[in-house]
Design goal:
Length: 446
Amino acid sequence: MSDLADRARIYATEAHQRINHRRKYNNEPYHVHLSAVAKLVAGVTDDEEMIAAAWLHDTVEDTQATLEDIEAAFGVSVAELVEELTDVSKPGDGNRVQRKQIDRMHLAQASKRAKTVKLADLVDNCKDITRHDPRFAQVYLTEMNDLLDVLQGGDAQLYRRAEKIHAKSVEKLGLTDVSQIHAWSPESLAESFPGVTGPKFRRMFIELFTARDIAESLYSFDLDSDCETVSKIMQRQQQDVASIRINGTVQGYVRFVDLGAGECANGLRHFTTDQVVTGDATLSDVVHVLTRHDYCFISLLGEVVGVICRDDINKPMVRMWLFGLITIIEMRVVQLIQTKYPEATWQSTLSEERLAKARSMQQERQRRNQHCQLIDCLQLSDKTRVAIEHPELLEALGFDSKRTAKLVIKSLESLRNNLSHAQDIVMHDWAQIARLSQRMEEYARR
């Protein structure tokens, strides 16, 4: 293994390990999948940048690393490959079918090298999903079939292998052709959260908070501005990034860390289409952009005028928004429990110690003339523990196993605790913030 590929292996493995990222169905460390994809790529090429990209292909989507981090660690060429392999659709772009169409068109424009890595990813994922999750495999095989239409420019050997495993999986599921595979039903997601969808919820938690509410103004300089002068201004104003005008129009940006000698043109970076949103974009879309990039830029009348970085997610308005989303989830969990455990029979699933704490809180509330049920006095961890003990509720909440549920719940509790105690949520909870914001945006659009 080359030094570049080995460094990518270490970087990706550690990035996924930091968030305890594991394979959904067998609980294997996530790097097992990355290793399989890298091995498939190495079997058809000795291009070390492609092998490195195979190790890194999920790093930007799933961990705290951004494309700029990849570029700093492995160079522009590897970062460009990872960018081609990273989905560009945002939660606000629509339902899953609409978002997958956008991502598919992004892949259609990718290089042969990136398409080869994607083929390897499809081969490994298809085997795993078909074996462990026949229900979702029907959705995945539809999407894979559509992807194969735009990946013909990849390595011919891997393409044939992907076609073969796709056909074998269709046959294994008892489908005579891919047209028999059921289309994705966006409404199925909403079934878990009735009352969390519709215009009222959208106004309260999606449209009320927008990108313009947390964006910071951008200082702007001409392309031929002296770097030393610009650097002094940015340092004095504590700005990490500034926009650059070319012939009077903002067309790119410079980072403070890139300013050296000469003119700003030497450090110019152009905006990418997935890096810029309008001022009325949802916070979910902002979080999605910041999962990929260090900066999310805000446009007004077609020109970039503001910027949001990850640290802005710590602002009070965003923290209020996230806490509200968690509260909505908690309320829904209680509703589900009450439908399956009449007469508070859920109490048998908890220890006497946990029940005693809830009863003590209930008594205190009643002393204050606050009507409440015992279940309302449980902690979030207790409520979710009760819910996932019931198979139907486990499924209703979208979990395939208790293990998966416990991991997600633990992350959700961490985010809630850090929100409550004014801790840095970006440093500790970014992966959970990204998942939560996307999921709730999906529900709101049903």
